[in-house]
Design brief:
Blueprint (H helix, E strand, L loop, with lengths): L3 H4 L9 H7 L1 H5 L1 H15 L5 H21 L9 H16 L6 H7 L4 H13 L8 H6 L1 H22 L3 E3 L5 E3 L5 H21 L4 H16 L3 H16 L6 H9 L4 H10 L8 H12 L3 H18 L6 E3 L7 E3 L1 H9 L17 H13 L3 E7 L3 H13 L5 E3 L4 H29 L6 H25 L18 E7 L15 H4 L14 H8 L6 E6 L8 H13 L1 E5 L8 H9 L3 E5 L10 H4 L9 E5 L5 H12 L3 H6 L2 H10 L4 E4 L6 H16 L4 H16 L4 H17 L2 E2 L11
Parallel strand pairs: 5-6, 5-7, 8-9, 8-10, 10-11, 11-12
Antiparallel strand pairs: 1-2, 3-4, 12-13
Helix pairs in contact: 2-11, 4-8, 6-8, 7-8, 10-11, 12-13, 14-15, 15-18, 16-17, 19-20, 21-22, 25-31, 31-32
Length: 751
Amino acid sequence: MHSVGTSFIPVRMSFPISRLVQDLKMNLINVSARLCREEQWIRDQHRSDLPDRRHDDMEVLLKKHAKCFSSGVQQPKKLTEGYRLMHVASEVSNLYNLDLDHRRKARMLACHGTGYRQIVSDISEEFNSEAKVDDKICTWLRPWDLCCGVIQRENDKAKQDEKLGVLTGDCNGNDTVATPRTEIEKHARRDLLARRATALKQTISLSTDGIQILNRSLNAAIAADDIMTIIQSSSEAIDLVGGWNPYLTAGYLHLYQSAKLRKHAIALLVNALPANNPERLVYDKKFTVVNAGEEHICNELLSSMDKYLDRKSPSHSRTRVSLSDCPKVEISEDLLKAIKGSGRFCPEPSLPTDGYNHTAEWEKLASYLCSKREDTVFVSIGYIEEHHALYGSLLSAEQGTKVSKMVISEAQKAEWLALRKEITAWRTALIQQLILYDNANCPHLEAIDVSLGGLLSACESFVTPLMSGLGLGGPDSVQGDESILMNKKVVFTVDRTVFDFYWEGMSFFANAVSMSRVFSLSLYMRQDFAAKRIMEKKMNKTMGYIVDPADPTESKQLYTTFKRVASKLKCKGFSPDSHSPSSGEWQNILKSNPTFLFSGFGSMMNRVQWRTIAPLNLIATNVALVNDKIVSESTQRREANAENSKSDIELEIDRLYNAALLLSVRGVNTLVINQHGLSQESAIRVQSHLLLGLTSGEDCGGCVARWRADIERKSTSRSKIKSSETKGSNRLYDRLNPIVFGVGESKIYSS
């Protein structure tokens, strides 16, 4: 039997490609034509002379097909891809009770075909305040964005192949591959099948027929007791569908019922975690599986996994993984081997071989950087081929662009590879904690917080000397010339086993953000010895602020609290409704105050360029409150209009976490309340409690703990059912709206 390590890397399809081509031919070849017909149907149904019926018809359309969509049956042809997409977003939004912005999704869809543009235009007009989409939902639904373009390209290629005589038509109108008669036709046939296989992998998650094919293949393998096909089919379906799927339940149970195969079921369960979002296991377990009526299966797997590991792995055979500043955590050797074999992690100090490739993203990033015609500082931390691909793309994209590449020595490379192996093992332990402890309603998030903080501290000792070489870190590096990065682009990449991190890149610490509701952002460029030296000195009780009191009647409580704080502390700052601060004013207010408050009117990165903050040394700033909850409808409309004119990369930079990370890497002990999922009243109450607590000298952790205790205390006065629902809702809010603060105490001033 093959090893576990080779069983879960999807290297080939477990069923014939030709069968998939036949079964999914309608989805690949005719969708474009169907979209055109559906678009014409929409125009006929929603004529301009009947504006009052348009919105009602759209709602009826979604409600009419909601049941059949959630049950997974085939959609009626009149339900367009665009409306089905918005229905998914609305359904998920209602499920998680999110306050989301769908305009970003509309912009992303608008670039995929003329038919989608009309659909998006209709949705943007009629669903402006009702159907909204968040970044998380955009990530989950990304295959929908690619569907139209992939199908169109496949149509064009199929037509070209048909002209060359590679394809013939059968009596049913299905395309078949003709028998090759020459070497050229053989190569053309192989290329055609390869293109079709690639297209199927990209679109199979969109097709109910495709999922049913996977289900039939899995059932046939179970009936024949073909273990390897079960493992491969389940692994491929997880990779293509993106997580726990009700069609895969039979495969999990078949593997789990055999004691010899339970480790495969455990590995498949771990493999169901998307690489960029381990937290999805919580969602899959609590929602997808529950909705499919399979909650008992998931609970049985999770609860039995711990017993199985304890029985198979005595205490003397367990590997103890720890870092200097982290508590001791035990990790089972069996689970570690299973996770290694899943293909999701690369614990060995070697280049990744699981097909992970960022070439397209690197090229997009390189073209964007070079389009600005500015000097680029390229910092490569770790050893990975894609980094060199980006460097080459930068050099070839624009000859006039100066690129500075930082070369690490062989000794530093060896040190990094050793650290990488230790960090990977520690991340595995964190995954184990999330899997095992969360199922018992005991997530041990405090331990995870300390664990991740220690992980980042371990990286700091390696990264800081490298950054100091470029003048990006250290207390003395920016004192001589604070504009060292004002006219330069910075691309800062870290080996993907830790994080994918680049300034104007696609993702800011995506793995770390989803690891826990509480985590540390005090990392990399912060010099601990300098921070401790400053903390020992007496600090003035001052606060710098950039606050928008837009429509104070809507946020009277928060505005009143802020005025009380301002009267107690020596506050200085700006209200952008009367004065928009310049870059110099932004820098001055950040450097001269131990506390900084940004509140009330959307993303901080919409108001200040990251180049303004990047060259600063902010180790004297203890706390930065970044509260992005928009409390004014007029402000919300203004922000939405501004986002519509931005590129995809600019939208990534504007994310709240990026502002927090940017402040944190410059030395701030950052506290961020991400309030997208909170109501306006809750957001105001949270900010008020934190402001009052901080002015009394309480540390951030104490403020957060007291706020959580108040919520749970209020919930006990209700019935047990409501109390349980409220507690579960609060836990979900914590995951979707992480409260971020430094590991140590972060007071407004030292006593």
